[in-house]
Write a structure and sequence with these properties.
35% of the residues lie in helices and 14% in strands. The protein is built from 14 helices and eleven strands. The protein has a six-stranded parallel β-sheet with strand order 3-2-1-4-5-6, with helices on both faces. It has a three-stranded antiparallel β-sheet with strand order 7-8-9, with helices on one face. Helix 2 packs across helix 4.
Length: 383
């Protein structure tokens, strides 16, 4: 089913984005731009990308429209260049040199549209010894030192899904980059290429830690520091029913409240005495094991002890605070995070569900003024 051109929602309303279909951080970055109101047209390939989930459930393709273009067909690159000529931003996530070989690289696109911001999303970056090597999130964050920070001492590093590398170090830096470049393009009339590498972004996320390391305030090993689980009043503890509570009672007043509610006030002096941290950890752990997660949640409810239950993905949307804020929403039968952040003058909205490959060819061809798209797309709107 085709969708109408999105307009009037979010601060990026009126911005046109072309997304060359890929997996992981590229689609998420394009989703964020779409959530902020941009008209994102995803150029899907015949047969779809590898590792793709059912298009009906791929929420990273929400708020977008889709056309199908075979870039290996004789007229395929021309269709993408037609889109690029009318776009503000183009996003691609190929290995270095692939877009150029396909005829849709930065030089080709910007020859048609000098104002275009061309965003490139890779793991290793556009240059360097590993630039042409395959990789995934876990390898990228491994080399930056950030993976090695996460987990318990004496155990393998804990893999943080693909949130740290793909999305935080990749997608979010790509979005910041292309929006900064768009601001420059609108001021000067000249676009540019944005090289967003997951290794660069993930390394950048650890800036504060590197400062603490240089100052002697961070040990270069897991589970030995204030914010990595080494501190007994900043971490997680198991409850009687196998659940967990998260504790972040760093400041003295929060720590004192935390101990009071645990009935462990005799341990107040242990906060600054690292030699007593193991004793403190054992006493806290024993207390948490004495009650269920629900019982402890009730104990800490309405306090400033900085303690919260560790919820599962299915539990989180039902938490009263997140429910009150509408942090999660249901659309098309799929529970998913609502667009973020929020804007007072240009509110965002979840306008459409996941774009189906090729379902919006006719509407894009009309709205963007590219009638040839309809003839090129083998699955153009027909329903």
């Amino acid at each position: 089913m085709s969708t109408a051109a999105p307009a009037g929602y979010g601060p990026l309303s009126g911005v046109r984005v072309v997304e060359l279909a890929g997996i992981g951080p590229g689609p998420f970055a394009a989703m964020l731009l779409a959530d902020l109101g941009a008209d994102v047209v995803r150029v899907d390939r015949p047969g779809g990308p590898g590792l793709a989930i059912d298009p009906a459930h791929d929420v990273t393709n929400r708020n977008k429209r889709s056309v199908v273009v075979d870039l290996k067909a004789p007229d395929g690159p021309a269709r993408v260049l037609d889109l690029a000529a009318r776009a503000d931003i183009l996003l691609e996530g190929y290995r270095p040199g692939v877009a150029e070989r396909l005829g849709v690289g930065p030089a080709d696109c910007r020859a048609r549209n000098p104002r275009l911001v061309y965003g490139r999303m890779t793991g290793w970056g556009q240059d360097g010894p590993l630039a042409h090597r395959a990789g995934h999130d876990v390898a990228y964050i491994a080399l930056t030192g950030t993976l090695g920070m996460i987990g318990r001492p004496g155990e393998p590093p804990a893999v943080p899904a693909n949130l740290l590398g793909d999305y935080a170090g990749g997608s979010l830096y790509l979005v910041v980059g292309v929006l900064a470049a768009l601001h420059h393009a609108r001021a000067t009339g000249t676009g540019q290429v944005v090289d967003a590498a997951i290794v660069d972004g993930t390394a950048h996320l650890s800036a504060m830690i590197h400062g603490m390391l240089a100052a002697g305030g961070w040990q270069d090993r897991r589970g030995a520091n204030l914010l990595d689980g080494g501190c007994p009043y900043y971490g997680t503890y198991e409850t009687a029913d196998g659940g967990y509570m998260a504790v972040g009672a760093l400041e003295e007043q929060f720590y004192e409240e935390f101990l009071r509610l645990l009935d462990l006030e005799d341990l107040a002096p242990a906060r600054r005495d690292v030699t007593r941290w193991e004793e403190l950890r054992e006493r806290i752990a024993a207390r948490f094991k004495s009650r269920t997660r629900a019982e402890w949640t009730a104990v800490f409810e309405g306090t400033d002890a900085c303690v919260a239950p560790v919820l599962s993905l299915r539990e989180a949307p039902h938490h009263p605070h997140l429910t009150a804020r509408g942090t999660f929403t249901d659309h098309g039968g799929i529970t998913q995070p609502a667009p973020a952040p929020r804007f007072s003058a240009t509110p965002t909205a979840l306008r459409t569900g996941p774009a189906r490959p090729g379902a919006d060819t006719a509407s894009v061809a009309s709205d963007w003024g590219i009638p040839a798209l309809v003839n090129d797309d083998p699955v153009a709107d027909g329903d």
